[in-house]
């Protein structure tokens, strides 16, 4: 197997170092100097690959978005998709935080297409598939996807922050809430 060019290896080293530091210290407590040191490079050499800390964080966020999209794509139902979103957040807290700090939607209206590689597009596609199978036939797919996304995001945010360590069976609670939400959508259809 051919080795990647040195510049590609260096870039990967810097991203891996940044990821390690993010997990250990959190997004706000990592500097370019620390990333360079963790990767074994001089701070000035880092600028050959990234022009800022935000550029590194944006690249890590884009990778996290792709991982989240893969997780959501593997879900077998809309309720499972919501649970997987929450599970991703709980198991990948730094990625979850980074995703929503560094990747604002580029979409500015419902008339624009969502980015095809976005996790939201996976949700939207799953809703459209459910509509083709006879569910939510009269509902706007974007509205349903937004509802699922906001419900899952709210659960994930609460469980990774305010309710972190709270003793409750959130998986069962979340499932019950998702299923009730989806039943409610069928009822207004």
Description:
This protein is an all-alpha fold and 189 residues long. The protein folds into 2 domains: 51 residues, Orthogonal Bundle (Arc Repressor Mutant, subunit A); 120 residues, Tetracycline Repressor, domain 2 (Orthogonal Bundle). Helices cover 68% and strands 0% of the residues. It has 9 helices and no strands. Helix 5 crosses helix 6. The N terminus is likely disordered.
What number of domains?
2
Our Rg estimate from Cα atoms comes to 19 Å
Residues in helix, %: 55-70%
Terminal-residue CA separation: 55 Å
Looking at CATH, which topology of the largest domain would you report?
Answer: Tetracycline Repressor, domain 2
Question: How many beta-strand runs?
Answer: 0
State the low-pLDDT regions, or none.
2-6
In round numbers, the mean pLDDT is 88
The assigned CATH architecture of the largest domain is Orthogonal Bundle
Structural class: mainly alpha
Indicate the overall shape. elongated
Would you identify the CATH H-level superfamily of the largest domain? Answer: Tetracycline Repressor, domain 2
What is the C-level CATH assignment of the largest domain? Mainly Alpha
Strand content: under 5%
- Figure out the total of helices: 9
Main beta-sheet annotation: none
User: Would you list the SSEs in sequence order as H and E?
Assistant: HHHHHHHHH
Task: Describe this structure in a few short sentences.
About 70% of the residues lie in helices and about 0% in strands.
State the main characteristics.
Tetracycline Repressor, domain 2; elongated; 2 domains; disordered N terminus; mainly alpha; 189 residues; Arc Repressor Mutant, subunit A
């Amino acid at each position: 197997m051919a080795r990647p060019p040195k510049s590609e290896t260096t870039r990967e080293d810097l991203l891996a170092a940044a990821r390690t530091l993010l997990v250990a210290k959190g997004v706000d407590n990592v500097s370019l100097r620390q990333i360079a040191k963790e990767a074994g490079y001089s701070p000035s050499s880092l600028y050959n690959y990234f022009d800022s800390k935000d550029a590194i964080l944006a690249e890590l966020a884009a990778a996290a978005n792709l991982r989240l999209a893969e997780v959501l794509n593997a879900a077998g139902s809309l309720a499972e998709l919501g649970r997987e979103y929450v599970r991703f957040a709980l198991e990948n807290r730094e990625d979850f935080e980074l995703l929503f700090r560094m990747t604002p939607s580029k979409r500015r209206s419902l008339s624009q297409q969502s980015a095809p590689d976005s996790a939201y597009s996976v949700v939207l596609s799953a809703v459209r598939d459910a509509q083709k199978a006879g569910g939510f036939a009269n509902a706007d797919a974007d509205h349903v996807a937004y509802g699922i996304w906001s419900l899952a995001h709210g659960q994930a945010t609460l469980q990774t922050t305010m309710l972190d360590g709270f003793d409750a069976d959130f998986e069962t609670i979340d499932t019950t809430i998702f299923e009730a939400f989806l039943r409610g959508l069928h009822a207004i259809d």
